[in-house]
Amino acid sequence: MKTGVETIRILLIEDDADYAFLILRALKREGALFELIHLDTLHSSLKFLDQEPVDVILLDLSLPDTQGLETLTHVHSAVPEIPIIVLTGLDDADIALMAVKQGAQDYLAKGALVQTEALVRSIRYSIERMRILKELQHSEQKYRVLYEELKETQSRLIQSVKLASLGEMATGIAHEINQPLASILIRAEGLIDSWERGIPKDPMPKLKEIVRLVGKATVITNHLRVFGRDAKTHYQTTDVNTVIHNAFLLFNEQLHRQNIHITQDLAPNLPSIHCNMIQIEQVLTNLILNARDAMAESVVKELRVRSFLQEQEVVIEVADTGRGISQSKLPQIFDPFFTTKEVGKGTGLGLSISYSIVQEHGGHLTVETQENRGSVFRVELPAVRSNSNVSAQEML
């Protein structure tokens, strides 16, 4: 677009020759700064615009082949990047304002066209406003792309931390699966031994137990597969206690083997939450594993999980009797790459990502702690109100 001392090309679409003359005369007072092209129909103007560039359009809404705001619609649709100044009669202010709302950059009452200063100012302001609008649209598009890239990067980071958690839990998960498999093997060998020795025994109790143990192992492996997949933006309405149960499913036995006493105080009949189940489970998994690590040297190892309703929020608390967090480190606890664990243990991303996940769900993640006495991490999530619209996350 031409600016500064360069000539500004103006297309005047006006069927009244007298007004066209007034405009031409007003612009000539500015010397050679303006080049005026005059056409008197919509058809001829659109044909011209398809072939020739202009910097601004002066548009009369009443033409021989079109009337009213339809005139603006045709021109603006053909050349949305060119600023349009609507020309109107003194009693058409309402239509002129509607035209501005529909894409025109400015409007002028025809009676004021003899005032060169007002005409030139409107032309220059319209060109500048269009330039700024284009820059804003370009910036918006650029930041939208950056936002999507950031979301994708965050999604990959969440997945990486989740897989790292699975790797950390590998031994415990193997034990969770090996335990029912070992029991199946013992019962199967007992049945074979009885058969070979000809001892008449009813096999049904052992066969039923084998079926039960296979079902247990199947539940664990199926959940492991679900938890390990990349969960991007699939939200659903669910019971928070189900999410808590799933969080313990993969390493419940591991915690018991480390002499950690688990207490679950889960309120029944809680309102549902609208969430990405895998992401909220990942938050709880991270909190539970952190509690486990914090109690590594504790004499009393108690892990307490509560769920309850507070006002319009469903609350989950994960409490431990571990070493706690010093007050000097507390302000940084949710910062990326910050960790209270020993060097080589932990990425410093678990709590940071958990904090982001909870915030994206419209909730809060907070902590209360005392050194050498333990910590309580608190997850607050919006409850889904019955007979009401689901929260904004449903649109994601």
What does this structure look like?
Helix content is 48%, strand content 18%. α2 packs parallel to α3, α8 (240-249) packs across α10 (277-294) and α10 runs antiparallel to α11 (350-360). The protein has 3 domains: 8-137, Rossmann fold, CATH 3.40.50.2300; 169-229; 232-396, Histidine kinase-like ATPase, C-terminal domain (Heat Shock Protein 90, 2-Layer Sandwich), CATH 3.30.565.10. It has 11 helices and 12 strands. The chain has a 5-stranded parallel beta sheet with strand order 2-1-3-4-5, with helices on both faces. α1 links the parallel β1 (8-13) and β2 (34-39). It has 396 residues and is of the alpha/beta class.
Topology (elements, then pairings):
Layout (H helix, E strand, L loop, with lengths): L7 E6 L3 H12 L5 E6 L2 H8 L6 E5 L8 H10 L5 E5 L4 H9 L4 E4 L6 H53 L1 H28 L6 H25 L7 E3 L1 H10 L2 H6 L3 E6 L6 E3 L1 H18 L7 E9 L2 E8 L29 H11 L3 E7 L3 E9 L14
Parallel strand pairs: 1-2, 1-3, 3-4, 4-5, 7-9
Antiparallel strand pairs: 6-8, 9-10, 10-12, 11-12
